[in-house]
Specification:
This protein is α+β, with helices and mostly antiparallel strands and about 80 residues long. The protein has 3 helices and 4 strands; from the N terminus they run E-H-H-E-H-E-E. The protein has a domain at about 15-65. The radius of gyration is 12 Å and the shape is globular.
């Protein structure tokens, strides 16, 4: 059975880490913490792998910075789970 994790858990991981990521380093951190087979869902999307979740969060403006170094944008973090 595939594990389903809400995208908020990845956002919380990024907030807690307080560091910049690249797409590659964020993907590695997600896989290390949640596992390579984990699928993610949000309030408006489901069944995403790490790559799809990163793209989804970027498209939604959840990151600040550039692809060479970004972090979660605190102004876009919602408070529902």
């Amino acid at each position: 059975m595939t594990t389903q994790i809400h995208g908020h858990e990845v956002i919380e991981m990024m907030v807690t880490a307080q560091q910049d990521y690249t797409v590659e380093s964020l993907k590695a951190a997600i896989i290390t913490k949640f596992g390579p087979e984990t699928r993610f869902h949000t309030c408006s999307a489901e069944d995403m792998d790490a790559d799809a979740l990163i793209g989804f969060l970027a498209q939604r403006g959840k990151f600040i910075g550039s692809p060479d170094g970004f972090r979660i944008n605190p102004a876009t973090v919602c408070d529902h789970g």
